[in-house]
């Protein structure tokens, strides 16, 4: 049940260790630094920080804990982290350890990226979504009032520690949201993995330890391979945004208080695949398989009630994936792979939005 | 009088073009992007932005101008730049062009580094100091209330355009401050360049165009070579901080309202060399040569009146070059080179501070 994934990025390479109980013991081996800041939120911090700190007797250890939730993903919260580090005179050789989900990881990574132009950064992701997605690839960010993740940096961690036992306490809805990203890797390219997921979705939803570890390993490995190829998202890495353009529109429309990110991506993947089918690029059967998998993962497959095609167009206009005024979408292809394209019939998009918003 | 320096950093390589009149014509060749933000300050902007913008008819051009001076080097000013870019829906393919001295360059570079995780960045440095120092090497930053340049990123520009004609309007004090960094390259390692400077200091102070272009070229080339070797300052690059630990202490003591950065570095170089001589690592003759060169450059060679050894110790305690509680200093060696060392007699430091603060 333990595995290791190597993210090959030259001098910025690092490993992802995956094992149950990984943070219960022997943590000092991963954190030899003498100045350590543990960053977490009000949900996760109380569960793990005491146990983590108890293993770090060799170091000066600080803690910073913020209110759980996307609303905390703000620059002024990162500023508070910097001020704490400055007040305690932490050097650039210190390490910031993110203990939590994607919000904690993104913010802690950004804080580390900019503190004295780059302090150490270690991730301990505690949600399924963070373990398979935001912990791989070095994307760090905070939100800007006018757009999600608009201020950030590409900054690689020194290491990522995935303790699958931290998932035991994850609420069902969060579990499903993470499963959406796992399913994305099935949809994105690997027919083997798509078939494996279809056979193992029941075990995954029952949180079978062996199946879960394997799903995390394959997802991390697929993402690591793509990121190693295209660290700064100038090309192929954009494939990982499958479902994200539609998904971000939903999240923005609901002001990030409605569907969870993974849930919105689930709907977005259905919409992107529907568009591919409408364009004749993908087979209707693939749409059916995707919808069935997402339903088995207890995920939504339709936009929230009341959201209109005009709402989508509005919110997609501000999306980062807009290149020189052209909307570029990640669209599945029948081979089980996908393309990034702005070269599609706009009427097919309009029809897809109309079909989806019912 | 025109030259080009290549900064070899793999896929982040760029060139520095040095020529008189470089920004008067043909600027679109360097700035083909379709979204351009010109950033400058209240001193420099009025001199150049109209002429620059007139050459960029192919692009959407925005401007952002802030109050000149170190006091503007704050995160909230960078936030205002981000908000302007967001309000105008500039994509991550946009380019931010810094037109001005080191403050403009550092802040614009940091804004570019973090906007959508990395927009384009081009430097048009208009002070001697920026042309020979802050335009090379990718250090970007803003100040934190508790320390200078504490929040930032390593982020390389796409290109640097050094128009030596922009120096014509530079006040004498700013000229000398830039000359301090030029002299630093003489002190740092190249005996040839040290000798060249001794023979050409009168021409440089008279702003002889040929001598000035050569001084800029050699300084940029030396810095480029060191940075190519050690982009993220894990080793040899720290040599470039010669005089900076003492210099920063002076700037902090005067709350950045006293000596200019270059002036403080001039004093710092004298103090570092004095310490080397006290340790027996450098010959007294080298201290004399350095002091003579700085005086010819109309630069201070002593700390400001009233500043005490205790003031230095206090401010050096928070310096970034403090490594695990040990003060590491760049100290000249008799060969005309220098070392980075924490392994010196603290009493020699105390004596140097006492000798310097008189």
Give the structure's gist in a few sentences:
The structure is a homodimer of 358-residue chains. With 358 residues, the first copy, chain A, is an alpha/beta fold.
What does this structure look like?
Chain A folds into 2 domains: 3-169, Rossmann fold (3-Layer(aba) Sandwich), CATH 3.40.50; 172-356, Dehydroquinate synthase-like, alpha domain (Up-down Bundle), CATH 1.20.1090.10. Helix content of chain A is 44%, strand content 19%. Chain A has 12 helices and 13 strands. In chain A, helix 2 (75-87) packs across helix 3, helix 8 packs across helix 9 (261-278) and helix 9 packs antiparallel against helix 10. Chain A starts with a strand and ends with a helix. Chain A binds chain B through residues 34, 75, 79, 82-83, 86-87, 89, 91-93, 113-118, 139-141, 144-147, 149-154, 232, 317-318, 320, 322-324, and chain B through 34, 75, 79, 82-83, 86-87, 89, 91-93, 113-118, 139-141, 144-147, 149-154, 232, 317-318, 320, 322-324.
């Amino acid at each position: 049940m333990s595995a290791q994934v190597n993210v090959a990025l030259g001098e910025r390479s690092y490993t992802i260790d995956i094992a149950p109980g990984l943070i219960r013991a022997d943590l000092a081996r991963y954190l030899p630094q003498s100045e350590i800041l543990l960053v977490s939120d009000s949900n996760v911090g109380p569960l793990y920080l005491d146990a983590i700190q108890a293993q770090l007797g060799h170091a000066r250890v600080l803690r910073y804990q913020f209110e759980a939730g996307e609303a905390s993903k703000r620059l002024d919260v990162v500023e508070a982290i910097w001020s704490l580090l400055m007040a305690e005179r932490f050097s650039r050789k210190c390490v910031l350890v993110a203990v939590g989900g994607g919000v904690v990881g993104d913010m802690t990574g950004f804080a580390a990226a900019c503190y004295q132009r780059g302090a150490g950064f270690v991730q301990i992701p505690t949600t399924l979504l963070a373990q398979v997605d935001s912990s791989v690839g070095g994307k760090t960010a905070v939100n800007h009032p006018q757009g999600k993740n608009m201020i950030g940096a590409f900054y690689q961690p020194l290491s990522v520690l995935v303790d699958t036992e931290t998932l035991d306490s994850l609420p069902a809805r969060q579990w499903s949201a993470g499963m959406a990203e796992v399913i994305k890797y099935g949809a994105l390219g690997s027919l083997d993995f798509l078939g494996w997921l279809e056979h193992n979705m029941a075990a995954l939803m029952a949180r079978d330890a062996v199946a879960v570890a394997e799903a995390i390993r394959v997802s991390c490995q697929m993402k690591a391979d793509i990121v190693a190829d295209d660290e700064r998202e100038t090309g192929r890495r954009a494939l990982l945004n499958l479902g994200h353009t539609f998904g971000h529109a939903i999240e923005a429309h609901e002001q990030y208080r409605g569907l969870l990110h993974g849930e919105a991506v689930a709907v977005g993947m259905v919409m992107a695949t529907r568009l591919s089918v409408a364009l004749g690029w993908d087979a209707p059967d693939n749409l059916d398989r995707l919808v069935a998998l997402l339903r088995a993962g207890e995920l939504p497959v339709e936009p929230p009630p009341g959201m209109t095609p005009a709402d989508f167009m509005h919110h997609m206009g501000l999306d980062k994936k807009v290149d020189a005024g052209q909307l570029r979408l990640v669209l599945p292809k029948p081979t089980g792979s996908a393309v990034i394209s702005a070269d599609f019939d706009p009427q097919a998009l309009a029809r897809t939005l109309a079909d989806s918003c019912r």
